[in-house]
């Protein structure tokens, strides 16, 4: 899992283990924000990076399989996003914008550790 992330170039900095979450990187918030107020960036097929890992981890935690945690928004992640959007009755476009991020983060908060949690 981690080796694939390193190969994809998403791990630029890992914080000390005493911080929560332990896998968070140096956050430069590159890309177009999904919401007018800022926050996570807009993601779509072809996106790469730490926010794709955040997305993949959240989707996997909720039971939507992304084909692994590699930081690459490919076909499996697109299918997982579409399935989640359909379940939540959001616009099913496979793009993670403001409404999808908001719903996803609200649903995943409090779920605790799962077999897919990045640690």
Question: What does this protein look like?
Answer:
The chain is about 35% helix and about 5% strand. By secondary structure, the protein is mainly alpha-helical. The chain has a two-stranded antiparallel ribbon. The protein starts with a helix and ends in an 11-residue tail after the last helix. The model is unreliable at about 1-25 (pLDDT under 50).
Summarize the structure.
The protein has 119 residues and is mostly helical.
Radius of gyration, CA atoms, in whole angstroms: 13 Å
Strand order of the largest sheet: 1-2
- The outline comes out as globular
* Number of strand segments: 2
Number of helices: 4
Topology:
Blueprint: H1 2-7, E1 33-35, E2 38-41, H2 50-61, H3 75-87, H4 98-108
Antiparallel strand pairs: 1-2
Helix pairs in contact: 2-4
List descriptors.
2 strands, mainly alpha, 6% strand, disordered N terminus
């Amino acid at each position: 899992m981690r080796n694939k992330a390193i190969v994809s170039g998403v791990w630029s900095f890992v914080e000390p283990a005493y911080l929560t979450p332990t896998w968070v990187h140096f956050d430069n918030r590159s890309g177009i924000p999904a919401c007018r107020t800022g926050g996570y960036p807009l993601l779509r097929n072809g996106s790469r990076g730490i926010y794709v890992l955040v997305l993949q981890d959240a989707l996997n935690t909720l039971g939507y399989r992304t084909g692994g945690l590699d930081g690459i928004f490919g076909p499996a992640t697109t299918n997982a996003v579409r399935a989640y959007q359909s379940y939540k009755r959001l616009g099913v476009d496979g793009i993670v914008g403001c409404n999808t991020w908001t719903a996803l983060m609200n649903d995943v908060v409090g779920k605790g550790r799962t077999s897919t949690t990045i640690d």
